[in-house]
Amino acid sequence: MSFIKKSASQMAEALASGEITSVDLANQHFSRIEEVDGKVKAFLHLDKEGALAQAKSIDDRRKKGESLSPLAGVPLALKDVLTQKGVPTTCGSKMLEGWRPPYDSTVVTNLKKNGVVILGKTNMDEFAMGSSTENSAYGPTHNPWDLTRIPGGSGGGSAAALAAFEAPLAIGTDTGGSIRQPAAVTGTVGVKPTYGGVSRYGLVAFSSSLDQAGPCARNVLDTALLHEAIAGYDEKDSTSINAPVPKVVEAAKKLDVKGLRIGVIKELNGEGFQAGVRNRFKEALDLLANAGAQIVEVSCPNFEYGLAAYYLIAPSECSSNLARFDSMRYGLRIGDDGTKSAEEVMNLTREAGFGPEVKRRIILGTYALSSGYYDAYYGSAQKVRTLIKRDFESAFQKADVLVSPTAPTTAFKLGEKVDDPVAMYLNDIATIPVNLAGLGSMSLPSGIAEEDGLPVGFQITSPVMKDDLLYQVGGTLEAALLAKWGEPLLSKVSL
After folding, report:
1. Listing from the earlier edge strand, what are the strands of the sheet with 401-405?
2. What element of type H or E holds 442?
């Protein structure tokens, strides 16, 4: 019997009861990857040998009667921005082609501790810069709903692997929406935890004050189980929050929102949002109201400046973080023939190793940080960031969680916005404010847009370290939608 279309928690139950072994489950997923990934291109590297060794170890421990974690033996796809010892980590860039890290990121350490089987590394926009996975140096990933369309970015590979049933769980990272927007356009679930809730140690940095690793899955409960497996304080990460992990699994099972105040963000539901996106959002709100939630409108007037502030802060931090790729220590080295200076070799290496979007953002960031411009650009953007945080604080006085559509449109066609960076950037308009404020946020599927038959995402945002509220509201909405649809949205994917 094939288990690939089961949920992660169903797989975990089958493993615990002895209905299937972890080795068999991993092999079923490798067969599925072999069958469809030639079209989807979700994976950059498969670690078949390592994954099967992990799976066998779990099976052996289970036979001995050891107590195992809830997700032990369940397969997972890992975004290629997190280090895994001995496994290629490229960040979708030629700069790191063939690099095998000598250490595990804390997320990977936690996955291994929980017995989760890591199948391989997924495709992404180079150094996580993009909204479509078209900026990968290794070619784009395709959306399983329609192979001519984008799977979102930067973590399109992780979201596509879920939607194509190549893995039941995945890890993404979110700097300006790179977990939530791919979840929205592929009909999957993705959570950006509170900044500092999941360790960033071993996450190759793009923008250190914004980057956050988080869980992705096909339903809310599976996402919660993965969240609990990877979250927690880490002394190796100076930004890690030393506080208990919110009880997200318990919250996902509550299925109750009676009396909760749900704030609709006025600024994120109007002009520029596709009609099908708005309609599904309204219907989801009605379901939450029917379930006993109180719907209130909140205003966050400074959100209109969020995009501009983000595209100054993120490139500035990227300019600084990516300076380490200098051809000297690791990664690519071009032109080192004994006749060129270190500077010449560095210039040749960065020219060959970085793609156009990465270069664009390094140049933007270097300019914004340069003498005479720092206050006008980077300094002003940080002030806007403070204003956005205040908008959220004021909104959370009126509501327990805030909601909006995740992305203004459904998945656009591959190549459609490649030559128009600003149009591409606008895709993150609803997700960016959350990163600027460091809050937790979830995207879950709320239906299909009538114009194009593609999935739409519903975004829920919670205050700092109240990530359990995301799962409480998300779990309730998901149950109501499932009752309405009669089957999960992803059953419509015919890949």
Report:
1. 43-46, 117-122, 75-79, 169-174, 212-217, 189-192, 440-448, 455-462, 401-405, 261-265, 294-298
2. strand 440-448
Report the alpha-carbon distance of residue 177 to residue 173 in Å, rounded: 9
CB 250 within 8 A of CB 37: no
Q: Residue 195, Cβ neighbours under 10 Å: how many?
A: 24
Q: How many whole angstroms separate alpha carbon 418 and alpha carbon 424?
A: 7
Give residue 427's pLDDT band: very low, low, confident or very high (50, 70, 90).
Answer: confident
Note the pLDDT of residue 125.
Answer: 97
Catalytic residue flag (residue 178): yes
- Specify whether the backbone of 202 is left (phi greater than 0), alpha (psi in -120 to 50) or beta: left
Catalytic residue among 93, 105, 178, 199: 178
Q: What percent of the chain has pLDDT over 70?
A: 100
Structure token pair of residue 407: 């992305």
Q: Which is catalytic among the residues 93, 136, 154, 327?
A: 154
pLDDT of residue 254: 97
Distant-in-sequence, close-in-space partners of 341: CB < 8 Å, separation ≥ 6: none
All structural domains of the chain: 8-301+387-492 (3.90.1300.10)
Give the separation between CA 23 and CA 50, rounded to whole angstroms.
11
What are the residues facing 189 on neighbouring strands? 217
Across the range 213-226, mean pLDDT stands at 98
Instruction: Identify any residues that bridge with 43 across adjacent strands, giving them in sequence order.
Output: 122
Residue 316 DSSP SS3: helix
Strands 117-122 and 75-79: parallel
154 belongs to the catalytic site = yes
> And the tokens for 239?
């930004």
> Helix or strand or coil: residue 117?
strand
pLDDT in tens, 55-78: 999 999 999 999 999 999 999 999
How far, in Å, CA of 384 to CA of 389, rounded?
9
Q: 106-113 and 220-230 are packed helices; what angle lies between their axes, rounded to 10 degrees?
A: 110
The secondary structure of 361-393 as a DSSP string is HHHHHHHHHSTTTTIIIIIHHHHHHHHHHHHHH
3-state secondary structure of 51: helix
Interior/surface letters 300-316, b for 16+ CB within 10 angstroms, e for the rest: bebbebbbebbbbbbbb
Q: Please confirm, yes or no, whether 17 is among the known catalytic residues.
A: no
How is residue 92 written in tokens? 């979708």
Q: What does pTM read for this prediction?
A: 0.97
Other CB atoms within 10 Å distance of the CB of residue 441: 32
Contact 217, 165 (CB under 8 A): no
Structure confidence at residue 494 (pLDDT): 87
- For residue 267, give the H/E element and its range: none
Catalytic annotation, pick one of 79, 94, 121, 192: 79
Pairing of strands 189-192, 440-448: antiparallel
Is the confidence at residue 336, as pLDDT, over 80? Answer: yes
